[in-house]
């Protein structure tokens, strides 16, 4: 699907550089041709020979030489591509890009290009979380640079966390979406995510085990397809999606207000694990132990059902409303009943029994139920579920 497209692949100097060799293959598999550019540091990790042999193209290296300049100058090189991909994008390369430095071939090409640029950051978790990297990331997003990843996981340095380069397949498909302009371009989609916290008193609350990982993955997948996403999230542990508007809320009531404020939208995906009840007698001060040993009693009120409210709106109902059904038994029957009761268009059913390890885990096993189909997808990563769902949403909102 990328036949005839040219990708300038800038390989930065990090251990993830070895994955960029696989990335060349992923682009080629899609029909694109790749021109690799290696930074000086990248040559410590992969050889120009391997990158050139895989790409079947001349490799451009940091050593400016007269022959290269005579064959193709850096301006021409930066413009000959349809897309510039930087993978791995090290903290150093991101900093150079954010500050407009042109001190080597890679950074000069990035300054000179008039084509879309996508980066796949990869670095140690502390470097990723560093305030300077965060500032640079914001600047790059503001400059319209497409960001792919990073992922969470074990790193070569032995630490664990955010900073691992996204998988080559994922980078290649995100790059394809940029090149193909994204089927969700021009669509505004709202995604709710995470748990809600319902206060008991100023220091205690009722919550649930949702990590928000599936919601973040869905937002990222929709963004990758070109959607404008508003992400409304309770206090989630998962990383926030990159490249969208994020509204943070605590309670179900606040989540409903944030959703209503965001309407109208083209699509709404309700992935949040909203608390069904709130404490009516929530105290303004910390509830103290009673000397006589009496135990406190909590009374509950039902929270608004955000999904049902939006699904049944007369005005401003989004064209596509998707709910989730977190079930522990009779998953499909319960999910179908939920779809009918709440009047959403689709429901994504999943079994959240503790033995499945789905709630709080990295994988999901879902069935997408629409009025006409019941699509039982095999167990896969939450990112993969998100990409499949985003693809279905793109078809429905065409
Ligand atoms: N939902 C919502 N507002 C609520 C409760 C749920 O928007 N107050 C949404 C969830 O985001 C999800 C769907 O409704 O998309 C189903 O949530 P789930 O927790 O599975 O169902 P419940 O409505 O809580 O129903 P039950 O208690 O019968 O399982």
UniProtKB/TrEMBL annotation:
GO terms for biological process: coenzyme A biosynthetic process; pantothenate catabolic process. Keywords: Decarboxylase, Flavoprotein, FMN, Ligase, Lyase, Magnesium, Metal-binding, Multifunctional enzyme. This is Coenzyme A biosynthesis bifunctional protein CoaBC. Pathway: Cofactor biosynthesis; coenzyme A biosynthesis; CoA from (R)-pantothenate: step 2/5; Cofactor biosynthesis; coenzyme A biosynthesis; CoA from (R)-pantothenate: step 3/5. Residues 1-188 are annotated as: Phosphopantothenoylcysteine decarboxylase. Its EC number is 4.1.1.36, 6.3.2.5. It comes from Paramylibacter kogurei. The keyword Transport does not apply. GO terms for molecular function: FMN binding; metal ion binding; phosphopantothenate--cysteine ligase activity; phosphopantothenoylcysteine decarboxylase activity. Residues 6-177 form the Flavoprotein domain. The gene is coaBC. Residues 184-395 form the DNA/pantothenate metabolism flavoprotein C-terminal domain. It holds the Pfam family Flavoprotein. It catalyses: N-[(R)-4-phosphopantothenoyl]-L-cysteine + H(+) = (R)-4'-phosphopantetheine + CO2; (R)-4'-phosphopantothenate + L-cysteine + CTP = N-[(R)-4-phosphopantothenoyl]-L-cysteine + CMP + diphosphate + H(+). GO terms for cellular component: phosphopantothenoylcysteine decarboxylase complex. NCBIfam families: coaBC_dfp. Its cofactor is Mg(2+); FMN. In the C-terminal section; belongs to the PPC synthetase family. In the N-terminal section; belongs to the HFCD (homo-oligomeric flavin containing Cys decarboxylase) superfamily. Catalyzes two steps in the biosynthesis of coenzyme A. In the first step cysteine is conjugated to 4'-phosphopantothenate to form 4-phosphopantothenoylcysteine, in the latter compound is decarboxylated to form 4'-phosphopantotheine. Catalyzes two sequential steps in the biosynthesis of coenzyme A. In the first step cysteine is conjugated to 4'-phosphopantothenate to form 4-phosphopantothenoylcysteine. In the second step the latter compound is decarboxylated to form 4'-phosphopantotheine. CTP binds at residues 276, 286, 304-307, 324, 338, 342.
